[in-house]
Every structure is written in structure tokens, then in C-alpha cells.
Specification:
39% of the residues lie in helices and 25% in strands. By secondary structure, it is α+β, with helices and mostly antiparallel strands. Helix 8 runs parallel beside helix 11. It is elongated.
Length: 401
């Protein structure tokens, strides 16, 4: 029978196993509350029983569930023989990932539980001073914190172990792949599918390459409603740049309702903001080259946009005074909608102009991936901002409205 951790005693080489349900929200939203609760009760009992079985098998002195939040929790495992605690911790985690998780998915499906069940797990070891039975939540340990943070960084359906665990993993070591680092510790990963390189790909897909940054990516141009949300956040200056700005100019004079984009532009202008638009000179060599590459009448598109911008300014008069339209013969290379980009809270929505064709012909610029960044993106934000800023100086720039 497992012993209890004793009050006011220091334990070395305690193994912490953190478990989290990556698909928790999808199950909660897709099922009645009582059914979802029963499903996660089943998960908790499966985890508890698996650990209890292996702790008894290896005659491990201590293996306690210290916390469970409904969608996951963590265990503390310790024995005077460290290899025993190690075997219980790693065998429990490995078996949960490779055996119990598929069985739980089958049981969820058989009982009508909708949603996707995925697990993330992490194992780290360290030293703790136990405060006594019933007070595990008051134990503060850098090693517990590291294990919790490592679990959050772990890709779904994977088990991560720290370098401290890997160094003593013994026969388990061959299951793991070195994938990167987290909080100064090397990380080793086991993926549920066990494929060659699977753990490395899972880690890179979740964590990215070294020195990556925060970027929100979209498969195509966001809707007029989403762009209106950006404009509603603007306070001083908006820069709208592209080749013809057909979408922006059309939304300013649309007869469809609701006209979210136009209302947002008007609201921004009424707040005293300046809305600067940059598009190509319709008779420039750049416009001619793009027209040939994209098999479109670029000159006509630009002139149509200029006509629509003019109609908007004429219709709203003094309210539209803050709308400025410029022409340039310099190829921008990308489109962008920037919001107060010189402020600490600036935002840039941009899309690089890619060339290529699809089964339906030349890919439209609105069908290209778009990215939303803030100064939190570091060098990425500053680089794109610099490129956007030169739109007002590069080439023969002329204000036309």
C-alpha cells in the first residue's frame, strides 16, 4: 500500500507527472454538462487506476494525485529507490498515451460523447518540502512550476520529459527524441504515433523554430467585418496600401447593408483620424507589368478605385476630409492595412504578393495568406513597418484625392 508524504520533510528525486486534456473545450461545448462531466470523471479514474496499478506492481512507496482540475492534473511519485519512481512515472505516462488514450476515445464514441480527446503530458523531477497531508496546493517548488510549464508547451498527444528525467531514463530513453529546449532545459519527446521524426515534427509545429514570434495567420483576406474591427481600434492614422485597392474602395460606396467597413472608416474619420491610401499609378510601367503577369486590366481597376474614392469623398464632404489617396509608380510587393503603426500598440495586417496559378486561373490577391502582427512580433513587425512607411517616399508619389 502506498505511503503518504510526510509533513515538513524534504524529498529528493520526486517525479512530477502533469496531464492535460487538449480537447477539453470541444467536448464541453458539444455535450450536455452531465455527459461531459462523466466523460472526464472516466478519464480521471483511468489515470488514477493506471498509476495505482503500476505503483503496486513496482512497489513504489509514494504515488499521490496532488491536483485534478476536471480536465487534467498532476501526480507526485517518490521512492527511496529512484529507479522505482522513474519506472512508475514513465510507464504510467507512456501507457496512458499509447494504450489508454485510444481505448478512452473508443469508450467516448460508444457512449455518444462528441468532440476530440487529446492529451498532453510532461514529466520532470526535483526536490520538494512537503507541508503535510491536504496541503499539497501550498507546496511551492521551481521543479513543480517547470513541469507545469513544460506540459503547457507539449504538443497534443505527446509526452515530454526534461533533460533531468532523460539522463536517468534508462531503458525508456530510446523512446524519446531530442526536440528542443524550454526554460533552459533540453526537452525530449514521445509522440503517440511513434513514427520516425514524428516527435520532432510535432514539437516544431507547436513551438516553431528558434526565435520565432507571434503572428496571427489567415488563409485569405479577412472579411469586411473583421477589417472594420481593426479600424474601430484605430485612434490617429490608418495606412491602406496595395495595387488597386479595389476591395477597400468598393466597400466605401457599397449599397449592401450592413456596411461594416464604411461605417468603421467614417467613425475613424469623425474621431479626427487620417486614412491614407496608396495605390499604383494606372499609367506606370509597374501597372503594365502587373497587368501582363496577372492577366487583368490593372489600369481599369485602378481608375475604377479612384472613381469610387472620389464618390465617397463627394458624398460625405467634410466628414471625409481625413481620407487621402496617393498614387505611386513603385511596386509595393505586399498589401497592408496598418493601424497606428508608429504607436506601441500598433497593428499591421499584411499579405505578400505571391505569384502562381490554381486550377481556376491566376490566384487573386485576396486569396493569399494574410498575417496580423503587433510590436510583440519584434523584428518582424519593425521590418514590415519600415517597408510600409516608405510608401510615402518611394517612387513618384502624387496625392490625387
Amino acid at each position: 500500500m502506498s505511503e503518504q508524504f510526510q509533513s515538513d520533510r524534504t524529498y529528493d528525486n520526486v517525479y512530477f507527472v502533469f496531464i492535460d486534456t487538449a480537447g477539453y473545450s470541444s467536448i464541453v461545448l458539444a455535450n450536455p454538462r452531465d455527459q461531459a462531466a462523466r466523460a472526464f470523471d472516466l478519464l480521471r479514474e483511468r489515470v488514477r487506476s493506471r498509476m495505482a496499478q503500476l505503483a503496486a506492481q513496482y512497489r513504489c512507496s509514494r504515488s499521490d494525485l496532488w491536483s485534478w482540475r476536471g480536465d487534467g492534473g498532476f501526480f507526485a511519485i517518490h521512492d527511496e529507490s529512484e529507479s522505482v519512481a522513474r519506472d512508475v512515472a514513465l510507464e504510467t505516462a507512456r501507457t496512458l498515451l499509447t494504450l489508454d488514450l485510444p481505448h478512452l476515445r473508443d469508450e467516448f464514441a460508444q457512449t455518444g460523447v462528441r468532440g476530440e480527446l487529446h492529451l498532453r503530458m510532461a514529466v520532470h523531477k526535483g526536490t520538494i518540502q512537503h507541508t503535510g497531508e491536504g496541503k499539497t496546493g501550498a507546496i511551492h517548488s521551481p521543479d513543480i512550476n517547470l513541469a507545469a510549464h513544460l506540459e503547457k508547451a507539449t504538443p497534443r498527444d505527446c509526452l515530454a520529459v526534461s533533460e533531468d528525467v532523460y539522463r536517468t531514463a534508462g531503458p525508456f530513453a530510446e523512446l524519446f527524441e531530442a526536440v528542443g529546449s524550454h526554460e533552459g532545459k533540453l526537452v525530449y519527446l514521445l509522440s503517440a504515433d511513434g513514427s520516425a521524426g514524428g516527435a520532432r515534427k510535432a514539437w516544431l509545429a507547436t513551438r516553431g523554430l528558434t526565435d520565432s514570434t507571434v503572428v496571427h495567420a489567415y488563409p485569405e483576406r479577412p472579411s469586411s467585418w473583421e477589417k472594420a474591427r481593426l479600424l474601430d481600434a484605430a485612434t490617429t492614422e490608418v495606412l491602406d496600401m496595395g495595387t488597386a485597392l479595389r476591395a477597400s474602395s468598393s466597400r466605401l460606396v457599397t449599397t449592401e447593408r450592413p456596411a461594416h467597413f464604411r461605417d468603421a472608416v467614417l467613425g475613424f474619420l469623425r474621431r479626427g483620424g487620417v486614412y491614407r491610401c496608396f495605390l499604383l499609378d494606372p499609367v506606370s510601367d509597374t501597372a503594365t507589368t502587373l497587368a501582363r503577369q496577372h492577366r487583368e486590366d490593372m489600369t481599369r481597376k485602378i481608375k475604377d478605385s479612384l472613381e469610387r474614392f472620389g464618390r465617397f469623398k463627394e458624398r460625405y464632404g467634410a466628414e471625409a476630409e481625413g481620407l487621402e489617396v496617393y498614387q505611386t509608380d513603385a511596386f509595393p510587393g505586399f498589401s497592408a492595412l496598418t493601424v497606428d503603426m508608429d504607436d506601441r500598440s500598433g497593428l499591421i495586417l499584411y499579405s505578400a504578393y505571391l505569384t502562381g496559378t490554381s486550377p481556376y486561373g491566376v490566384i487573386e490577391r485576396g486569396d493569399m495568406p494574410h498575417y496580423l502582427i503587433s510590436p510583440a512580433a519584434g523584428r518582424v513587425f519593425h521590418r514590415i513597418r519600415e517597408l510600409a512607411q516608405v510608401r510615402g517616399t518611394e517612387g513618384n508619389v502624387q496625392r490625387v484625392l
